[in-house]
Write a structure and sequence with these properties.
With 553 residues, the chain is of the alpha+beta class. It has 15 helices and 30 strands. Helix 2 packs antiparallel against helix 4 and helix 10 packs antiparallel against helix 11.
Length: 553
């Protein structure tokens, strides 16, 4: 009898344990399959850049500079569904299974590339159908080929890499599925190269954030060498955050306002993505870059408007590939946007003078500039040193307007960190930025935060465009410490009242509220302020309360 009772207890305990394990399994998101879980036929294993161009040539056009130009059906990034953020559904998994089955018999191209530099480098893998080898061409420029010998020899190349698999011909509506913890992404129904670039960066951001406590940044990075008032050559390091298409690349690849004859110049480390990584146990910081090329917008680029971008795009010596750019008589036409305003060029950094031979990484920045396009924000503003919450507030909002890069036509967009690519709770990123700015506020050479509006400002004449030259002059004056600031009591931000080299008339032209009744301006600002606060409280739960209480504008 006793033995029967013991046996019964054992059965009950076993069932309870099994039930608990089942509940635990249901509570955890089921991982996406790895690329190796499918029966794939790799026809071209890690081809060289020249071989990739040969495979892709039948599907593109050769320009006068020798670059290949391709056109895609989908011409922008698609919203990502992240496993870690609980966005992947049963329907997504079913679609993935069918999509992968559809390419089992196809000839595929597999490439291995390098993200980052030195000890920070990581391996990135790409698998695409042969007829979409252009994705490999554009990818090899940003993430250059890693040979089999390097994979066996380099320590960083021995670590598990980040894999992106494309199935462009599956489905009417694209699906982008990412499992950052498993380091795998699937792009279904699209051949747009931006999906390859951002999937690799998303997975890297997740890893570097989780492993080092880094802050992922959708940003460009530059070092500017300047002569100070005593004629001594000094350096100013800037990181420029912003949504796609708002000016990060333009600001980091322009030599506007510099005197090359006096040794002044710009070093462009990155134009789109990196991370602030802690050093010395969090006491120090450094910027880590990712891409060996630039994925530049071509819309309206000329030798005069964007000399750095033009230099790279038109080079006959290096490696360039175009996506959705009009080609007329073998000549790429950057002024014709009939295909899309989101035409792109993948350009090797070696083809641009200010980035050629320069490191991807940079030391701790002197300034963090956040591009926030809103007509009620100044063309440039400085966050008071005593109010780091203002900088964290701008970062948490991530406010701007949607550009063609994200399929927008000027609608307001708010995404923490000016990015939709970072996995995990957005409040965690904003709180981390607050901690960083607080830490820097007490340092003699601490990082200062700035907000720039590269769009339009509201005046009595309506929205007044902030010209590209205006933004560049203001940025350079800030880096030279040649702006006289004054606190704006409504915003709680410091705004320029004098800018060396800029006339009072030019500064007044792009001043918010010029010619407007103060009561009307205050009313508009109050409405927007409440809308912003409401957004943060509902969409970004978990924010440090001081970010809203002391940071709101």
């Amino acid at each position: 009898m006793r033995s029967n009772r013991c046996a019964l207890i054992a059965v009950v305990l076993a069932l309870a344990l099994a039930g608990g394990q089942a509940l635990a399994r249901r509570g955890r998101p089921r991982r996406l399959p790895a690329a190796s879980d499918w029966s794939l036929k790799i026809q071209h294993r890690n081809p060289t850049y020249r071989q990739l161009k040969s495979i892709a040539r039948p599907h593109g056009v050769v320009t006068e500079s020798g670059a290949l130009a391709f056109t895609t059906k989908i011409k922008r990034r698609w919203p990502v569904r992240s496993l870690q953020d609980g966005q992947i559904t049963a329907a997504d998994r079913k679609a993935l299974g069918r999509a992968m089955k559809s390419i089992e018999g196809q000839k595929l191209v597999e490439t291995y590339g390098k993200l980052g530099q030195g000890k920070d480098a990581r391996l990135v893998r790409l698998v695409v159908p042969e007829k979409y080898a252009q994705i490999g061409v554009l990818s090899d420029i940003l993430f250059p080929r890693v040979t089999k010998g390097e994979r066996a020899k380099r320590q960083w190349a021995k670590k598990p890499g980040f894999t992106t698999v494309f199935v462009p011909d599956y489905g009417r509506t694209p699906r982008v599925l990412v499992d950052s913890a498993k380091r795998v992404a699937y792009v279904l129904g699209s051949s747009y190269f931006g999906e390859r670039k951002k999937s690799a960066l998303r997975m890297w951001w997740y890893e570097v954030k989780e492993s080092t406590g880094a802050m992922p940044l959708h940003a460009s990075a530059m070092t500017v060498k300047l002569r100070n008032g005593d004629g001594k050559l000094t350096e100013h390091r800037s990181v420029v955050l912003g949504h796609s298409g708002t000016g990060k690349s333009t600001l980091s690849t322009s030599a506007e306002g510099l005197a090359p004859g006096r040794g002044e110049r710009v070093i462009a480390h990155q134009d789109d993505a990196g991370a602030l990584v802690p050093t010395r146990g969090g006491k120090g910081w450094r910027f880590v870059g990712t891409e060996h090329g630039m994925f530049l917008k071509t819309d309206g680029v000329t030798a005069r408007s964007d000399p750095g971008a033009w230099e790279g795009m038109t080079s006959r010596k290096g490696r360039t590939a175009f996506e959705n750019v009009v080609v007329k008589g073998k000549k790429a036409d950057f002024l014709d946007t009939s295909i899309t305003k989101n035409g792109r060029a993948s350009v090797d950094r070696k083809q641009i003078s200010m980035s050629k031979g320069q490191p991807l990484n940079m030391g701790k920045p002197d300034s963090i500039v956040m591009i926030s396009r809103h007509e009620l924000l100044p063309a440039i503003a400085r966050v008071p040193a005593a109010r780091p919450e203002k900088g964290a507030y701008a970062y948490a909002l991530g406010e701007s307007v949607k550009t063609s890069a994200a399929g927008g036509t000027g609608q307001t967009i708010r995404e923490t960190g000016f990015s939709s690519f970072v996995t995990g709770p957005p409040a965690k990123e904003a709180n981390r930025m607050l901690s960083f700015l607080k830490q820097q506020g007490g340092k003699r050479r601490g990082t200062r935060a700035y907000i720039m509006n590269t769009g339009s400002v509201l005046t009595a004449d309506g929205p007044t465009k902030v010209a590209k030259t205006d933004s560049l002059r203001l940025l350079r004056a800030m880096q030279r410490n040649e702006i006289k600031w004054q606190l704006d009591p409504t915003l709680g931000l410091e705004v320029p009242v004098e800018v060396k080299g800029m006339s009072k008339a030019d500064l007044a032209r792009i001043t918010v509220g010029r010619g407007m009744a103060q009561s009307e301006l205050q009313s508009r600002m109050s409405q927007v302020r409440q809308d912003r606060i409401s957004h943060l409280k509902t969409k970004v739960p978990g924010l440090d309360p001081s970010i809203i209480d002391r940071g709101a504008y």
